[in-house]
Structure to design on (639 residues):
């Protein structure tokens, strides 16, 4: 089936059927690296991970290692972590500070702006041939610093990042803005979760674009209670700040899927973070401030979302950005960093940091159970018989509205529409469609008007 | 962090070896409790003010290891920075029978080796608090064919509380950078 390149046929949104092979087939995987990951916008890191000139971290785009660094003039760059001479990694560290990236192999050295500045025996060996200008580190085609989070794409012709995000921006903002509603102002905790999970990258990406149906898989942690008020006897894996809210599942052009919620018009604060009065007070204060700042807009509160293709966020409890890096058809390398308001008091930083650790990632009580499900679901896709049987994506077919009550293609009941749109977009990339086609979406016209 | 041994060379006399034997037995008993999945009994040997810490480890430039290799307790995101309360939550979670990462339960064997004492307080003759360095080798097998091996170093502190040893601090240095296992669903 992978032989006919009929990717739209494999992700049949009309009938709600998706071919299992897209989660297991080698050839499809390698085409994804080429067609999806060299074109779309990918998350690389956060500016607070590289505060000083010369600071760098290594990260990943698709299946390749990249360097995120701040050059000696303070400008941020993203480079492929490969020497232009013979390909050795020019940076072997997770983080650090440097004046140059000197290749371990033959010692070409590159300045932090990527320029090739040192070639051993250059005069004797290369005087006639080498144009150093041409052999800088390979830099991404577009980079964007969005409220501190750094994104990049290898495609010059890709829409700029803001256009690419479209209406999903308003929701990603909740993770990146301060809790009191002021723009930006978040920072990343030291320590990035990086781990390998035997699942196809699309499985967790889809999970975060609005699979609320899997709530039941977290029943163990909900029974036990690990939220920020668990010490005060609350059950659940988080405090239910959305108890009175209308949950919303929203799909946007570009394949982004968001799960947020809308509070009632009176937008009452629901007490949370009860395990520490200083923290509770901070959240209460920020909640009220945010309402003053944003007015009606403050009624929207975040939950989770996926920015196509492989960046997901938790908006509030916990609060983090995560990349599901492709690592083979049945393997993902995952990285996640956690966010907090820069100005938050120490008590807040401490409590949320501990909560994030017990909630998320391979040591987190919640996500461990996700991992088990993602992995075994992926494994099923390579069965000779199993792969003849498509997955069912028929939940809440047709139950959506456009731009009602918020911008986007919106469902007010649990739905697999976000996933159906995610895969529809995936097929457009796979079939080498132009950007117009990739961004075409049921909510497109109305949204196009207000950007 | 891990150089306690070098700093606090303890005299290795008869008292040392006698205490070491007692401590070894404690650690083996502990491993046995966990391997036999007696999780709640394991909780009983943890002091109420336990700190259970496993940093994330980074590749850093030579000369910056002390300061940058491991994430910091109290500041950074680590794999674990737990207390007895969160560990008891983890155990409660297993007991729900619906914690899919450990349901059905993994098969786990813990090998604890290279045990050395350091920082014995107040005296080797009448110890109330003992620092212990060791290595671990943990084999986890789960579901049908899933296997993980965890190798690393532990720095523990035991304290005598009403005549019995209790664990008051455990620092676990796992020898991995990108975690190779999909989950850390077992106890170290
Ligand atoms: S590979 Fe880098 S200098 Fe040769
Ligand atoms: Fe989940």
């Amino acid at each position: 089936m992978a032989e006919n390149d009929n990717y739209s046929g494999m992700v049949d949104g009309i009938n709600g059927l998706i071919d299992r092979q897209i989660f297991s087939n080698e050839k499809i995987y390698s085409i994804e690296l080429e067609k999806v990951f060299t074109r779309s916008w990918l998350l690389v890191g956060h500016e607070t991970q590289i505060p000083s000139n010369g600071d760098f971290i290594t990260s990943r785009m698709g299946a390749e290692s990249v360097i995120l660094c701040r050059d000696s003039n303070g400008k941020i760059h993203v480079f492929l972590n490969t020497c232009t001479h013979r390909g050795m990694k020019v940076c072997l560290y997770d983080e650090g500070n440097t004046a140059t990236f000197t290749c371990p192999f033959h010692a070409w050295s590159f300045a932090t702006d990527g320029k090739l500045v040192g070639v051993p025996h250059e005069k004797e060996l290369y005087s006639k041939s080498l144009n150093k200008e041409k052999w800088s580190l390979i830099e991404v085609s577009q980079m964007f610093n969005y409220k501190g989070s750094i994104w990049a794409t290898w495609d010059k012709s890709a829409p700029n990042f803001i256009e690419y995000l479209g209406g999903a921006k308003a929701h990603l903002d909740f993770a990146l803005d301060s809790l009191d509603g002021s723009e930006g102002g978040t920072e990343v905790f030291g320590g990035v979760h990086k781990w390998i999970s035997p699942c196809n990258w699309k499985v967790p990406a889809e999970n975060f674009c609005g699979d609320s149906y899997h709530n039941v898989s977290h029943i163990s942690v909900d029974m036990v209670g690990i939220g920020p008020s668990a010490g005060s006897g609350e059950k659940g894996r988080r405090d239910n700040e959305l108890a009175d809210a209308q949950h919303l599942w929203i799909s946007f052009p570009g394949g982004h899927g968001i799960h947020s919620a809308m509070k009632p018009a009176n937008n009452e604060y629901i007490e949370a973070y009860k395990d520490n009065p200083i923290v509770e007070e901070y959240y209460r204060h920020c909640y009220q401030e945010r309402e003053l700042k944003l007015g009606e807009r403050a009624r929207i509160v975040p939950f989770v979302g996926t920015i196509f293709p492989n960046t997901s966020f938790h908006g509030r409890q916990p609060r983090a950005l995560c990349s599901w890096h492709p690592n083979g058809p049945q393997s993902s390398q995952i990285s996640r960093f956690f966010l907090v308001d820069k100005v938050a008091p120490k008590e807040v930083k401490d409590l949320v940091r501990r909560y994030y650790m017990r909630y998320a990632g391979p040591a987190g009580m919640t996500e461990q159970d996700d991992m088990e499900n993602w992995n075994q679901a992926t494994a099923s896709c390579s069965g000779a018989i199993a792969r003849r049987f498509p997955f069912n994506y028929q939940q809440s077919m047709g139950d959506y509205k456009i731009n009602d009550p918020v911008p986007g293609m919106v469902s007010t009941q649990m739905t697999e529409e976000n996933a159906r749109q995610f895969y529809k977009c995936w097929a457009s990339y796979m079939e080498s469609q132009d950007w117009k086609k990739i961004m075409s979406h049921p909510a497109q016209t109305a949204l196009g008007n207000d950007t | 962090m891990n150089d306690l041994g070098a700093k606090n060379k303890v005299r290795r006399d008869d008292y040392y070896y006698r205490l070491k034997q007692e401590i070894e037995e404690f650690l083996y008993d502990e491993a046995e409790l966990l391997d036999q999945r007696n999780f709640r009994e394991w909780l009983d040997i943890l002091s109420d003010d336990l700190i259970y810490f496993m940093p994330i480890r980074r590749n850093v430039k030579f000369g910056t290891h002390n300061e940058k290799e491991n994430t910091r307790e109290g500041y950074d995101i680590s794999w674990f920075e737990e207390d007895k309360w969160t560990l008891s939550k983890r155990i409660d979670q297993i007991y729900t029978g619906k914690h899919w990462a450990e349901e059905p339960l993994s098969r786990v064997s813990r090998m604890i080796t290279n045990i050395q004492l350091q920082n014995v307080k107040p005296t080797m003759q009448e110890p109330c608090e003992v620092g212990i360095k060791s290595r671990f080798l943990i084999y986890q097998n789960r579901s049908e064919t899933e296997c993980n091996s965890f190798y690393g170093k532990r720095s523990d502190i035991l304290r005598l509380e009403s005549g019995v040893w209790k664990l008051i601090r455990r620092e676990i240095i796992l020898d991995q950078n990108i975690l190779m296992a999909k989950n850390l669903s077992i106890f170290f």
